[in-house]
Amino acid sequence: MKKLAILAFALLAAMPAAAQSGALKLSLWDHIAIATPANTQEIKGLDFGIGSKSATVTGVQLDLLFAQTEYELRGVSMAWIINLANDVYGVQSALLTKAENLNGAQLGFVNMSNHSATGVQFGLFNQAEYIHGAQIGFVNYAKTIEGLQIGILNIAENGWFPAMVLVNGRF
């Protein structure tokens, strides 16, 4: 009984610290959501729903149709259909993944990074302005590469050749 009382006291003492950012968010669509505590934009924990849009997520974002992080994602973000984020630090997964900057992995049918991708893109079509790592898919495109492309068609403007079959890259 004493251990249970100590645990309850510790949880009550930690509640004000957790109230500064959302620890759990349940989303119906876009910003239509409830969160514990009531911060639906800065999630440090789990963001779960049908379609979710958050400013920053540190933790896990799991959604059925789309998952969007407007500024920064640190952790894992998975959606069945569309996953959009500004900066990703971790894993992003969906049918369509899109990030401004990626540090980690994108796993999907179509993976896009508008600026830099450091890590791995794995899908049917992979695209990045600058890739430092690997692109593995049927069609891979990078304006600038420091790493390796493996696929049926590999396009890298600064690669060994501008377009290659099976393997392209630059080290």
Descriptive report:
- The structure is a single chain.
- The chain has 171 residues and is mainly beta.
- The chain has a domain at 20-98.
- It is built from 1 helix and 7 strands.
- The chain has one helix spanning 2-18, and strands at residues 22-29, 32-36, 42-79, 82-122, 125-136, 139-156, 163-170.
- It has a 7-stranded mixed sheet with strand order 2-1-3-4-5-6-7, with no helix packed on it.
- Strand 6 (139-156) and strand 7 (163-170) form a beta hairpin.
- 39% of the residues are buried.
Any key phrases for this structure?
single chain; 171 residues; mainly beta; 7-stranded mixed beta sheet; 7 strands; 76% strand; elongated
**What percentage of the residues does DSSP assign to strands (E)?**
over 45%
**Low-confidence stretches at least 5 residues in length (pLDDT < 50)?**
6-19
Number of strands: 7
Distance between the termini: 62 Å
- Provide the succession of SSEs: HEEEEEEE
Q: Rg from C-alpha positions?
A: 19 Å
Spatial shape? elongated
Major sheet, described briefly? Answer: 7 strands, mixed
List the helices and strands and how they pair.
Layout: H1 2-18, E1 22-29, E2 32-36, E3 42-79, E4 82-122, E5 125-136, E6 139-156, E7 163-170
Parallel strand pairs: 1-3, 3-4, 4-5, 5-6
Antiparallel strand pairs: 1-2, 6-7
Nutshell version of this structure?
The chain is elongated.
